[in-house]
Amino acid sequence: MSNVCDIYPDDRIILREVGLRDGLQLVKSFPSTAAKRKWIEREYDAGVRHFEVGSFLSAKNFPQFADVLEIVATIAALPGAHGIGLALNERGVDGALASHVAEIGTVVSATEEHSRANANRSRDQAIDNVRRLCELRDASTHKPIVSVAISMALGCSIVGPVDPREVIRLAEKCYAAGADVVAVADTVGYAGPKQVGELTAAVVRIAGKQPVCVHLHDTRGMGIANASAALDAGARILDGSLGGLGGCPFAPGATGNVVFEDLVFLCESKGFATGIDVEKLVDVRGILKETMPHEALYGGLARAGLPGKVARAVA
Amino acid sequence: MSNVCDIYPDDRIILREVGLRDGLQLVKSFPSTAAKRKWIEREYDAGVRHFEVGSFLSAKNFPQFADVLEIVATIAALPGAHGIGLALNERGVDGALASHVAEIGTVVSATEEHSRANANRSRDQAIDNVRRLCELRDASTHKPIVSVAISMALGCSIVGPVDPREVIRLAEKCYAAGADVVAVADTVGYAGPKQVGELTAAVVRIAGKQPVCVHLHDTRGMGIANASAALDAGARILDGSLGGLGGCPFAPGATGNVVFEDLVFLCESKGFATGIDVEKLVDVRGILKETMPHEALYGGLARAGLPGKVARAVA
User: What distance in Å separates residue B84's CA from the closest CA in chain A?
Assistant: First the structure.
């Protein structure tokens, strides 16, 4: 396997396309395997290298992820591309390990109430599962990266405000359990940039040399502002989805992840090279429009184009 | 007249509703005077106090501002409400002064090219006009506040990038000419938060005790992130429009101003009290939907509601 520092170097920004998993979590219709491949290949061509590939869940309940093994293989065939598969339970972990996906992601809820309501387990049990996942990983031949998202880290759909000290404590426990990456997730898009910046800075501090990801939703229009604050606070991995695809079962009517292409524009405007051609990226939205015509797509770049282009068009 | 410090105190944030002017600048259909009044009165009831009322332009070419005198009177009748009228030429200034609007806004282009193309005058001539406006103001009985927006301050639709030193030079000239407020305007939504923060900080520095406004458009999805950066850099006056209404003739297809209700949420989330009830504000969008059914409205708060409300709905 690759070292975590090769996949997540600490001297540059990594933007991860989570549309193929988080973006498809709740959709009614979804792209065919061939369309997903085209989506991945065209984003790869635009410079994207990190992709959430799907979730190792029952294909009966989640048919949108039934082709996860084929998507893992698609990513593995692209030089330098990195796939992340979500595994929420033991069976998922077995499937993910067997798939040889390069990174296995799992989730710990920030609040006891959400952990019990959503996953029917305590947070301690969730941390035990992370530990067990890391042991299985260590015993594997290909040793995938393990990442843990702390969901509801910036606000909980059940209890509301979340004590940041609890998130920091859980992040420490995740790293101690063997996780390579911890993601701070504003699952329901509750936070503003001040809160995101403060929590990110605190997690970056305890993470030391370990990578920290910030996973944001644009539910209340704060997504890009929150991403900017996360970057200022030292996060070097951010998640987004093409067109802001995706939603959350706990926030009905809410939009999904931060818009990937706007995230690229944000990073570049702040002087962080992403290696991604934003115009090529915007063009990939055509695949989503064709295969999921009823899904709302969001984003400023897609609407207005790059500044220079407009300037040329008008001048 | 009120002192500028009463209208724009330096110890709190002022959010200005510019939808009635900037938001209506390019629309094909527009609300009746009665509907505008309802819009103002309901926003006033939500806590909004600062309103751009319209533009003193030829009613033949801009019928949406034909009722500007009535709108000025509507605002003047509301205790503590403050109206701002735009005056772009001598005739407009005469009309604005005669209307007894509390604040007269005018514009100087950040680039020579845009100034000549858009207003058929040099920037020096535009500054001369500001000086003349301030002289007329000083000679008036009611002495309105004078504010100057430096348009294209963060990127120009004609020449592209703008030298921030030129903007700072122009801002100094505006204050020296007698302007009370200078607004840094990202007219075509070119900038990211780093650029907005740096320019805002520089203008705040030269402004001393004079108020600085930052006027942003959400063209590329950076509006709220840019507003956050402007606040961090010391701006205490921000413009927005309900639902993000408005566009720009120089950025076809682009969205308008920063979404006012999201701006309220941003400020409150950063600990800046706005005095505005965001839910009441969101409700006012109904007037826009009724009277301008073809205009796209934007905004995260309107989509998802306040975090607590969602929490209660789900829990």
Answer: 27
